[in-house]
Amino acid sequence: MSSVRPFSNHQRLPWIDAARGFAIFGIFMVNLPAFHGPYFLYGNGQNYWGTGDAGIWQIIIDIFFQASFYSLFSFLFGFGIQIIYENAKNKLAKPRRLLVRRLLLLLLFGCIHAFLIWYGDILITYSLIGLILLLFIHCENKTLWTWSLCLLLIPMSLFTGLMYLARDFIDTTNVELIERAYQHYGGGGWGEILRQNMTDWLFANNVFAFILMIANILPIFLIGMLFARNKWLHDIKDHQNILKRVWLITLIGFVLFKVGPYFIGNPLWLTIPQDMIGGTMSAIFYMLTIALTYSYISVIFRLFSYVGKMALTNYILQSIIGVLLFYSVGLGWYGSLTPFETIAIAFVVFPLQIIWSYVWLRKWRRGPLEWLWRKGTYGRIGKVYSNK
User: Fold this and answer.
1) Per the domain annotation, does 385 fall within a domain?
2) What's the domain count of the chain?
3) pTM to 2 decimals?
């Protein structure tokens, strides 16, 4: 095992780190309304802040952020799994064991995050679907393309058809659970918050939701693996033509599926294609935009890359900050901020994350949770390696 090492800094692709940091920012933008109040989870799906006019901020989040950034992170997750596998397969007899260990450690991080910090965790989902992804690790590219398209299109079409047929009866508002969340998060003690947190996690992660997440996330994992296999993002100049073609296709899909529904009133029954197809298209569009323009504005993208190199640490740190800002054990802003004030938090917190990530990485090669994850994955015992 000691002969297998993660990539060193000079082997990393800087546009991948930048995209990962950009994804952390976008995920925080989407998570903030869920920290602010219970409407993101128990509301009507049309207003994350309450019963009044959602306003322009709801539209901005819905079009540019909702489903786009966990999809971008999913793409990068699949991309990273393939890179790790290629790095290990020539050195280990059973390289998938390394990946299983890595995913089980991620599951542990996710359980701590979901049950002790915040219910909106995505790490448990990534780890479990990641284990399914390993079943595809030896498949040919054509097989991966076929599975990704079928998994994405068939369930989406079926669920959308069912929602259309039931469009006059869909009502996702749960007044009782909304009031209970206000009582516990807004004024409860730590024990009440943890119990409410468990209730919310179970509600958000029911069997139906998990099946839908498999149909949503697994195809994007597979697409990320395909990009890594074909080395399309390793040497941008060599693959400019195909990247530009895919960029244009995903831009068109982005506009059609994320903006298009607003021309017909943004009905609730279109939510699934808007998230699954629109989210996938926008995620790949964002990734390719960063890759194709990185050399022109690398100074800006480098700021995102500091956060991206410590993505796991910064993701969980954002949840801790959200709890401390909104819940009664902290500043108690739960349900009390305007949409603008809620979103503005991201533009204060994220620059601070850039600064602290930069300062940390000047001394250490990786973030604290990244080091723990690496140590558990590769089985190497020793101190945190300094850059000095």
Assistant:
1) no
2) 1
3) 0.92
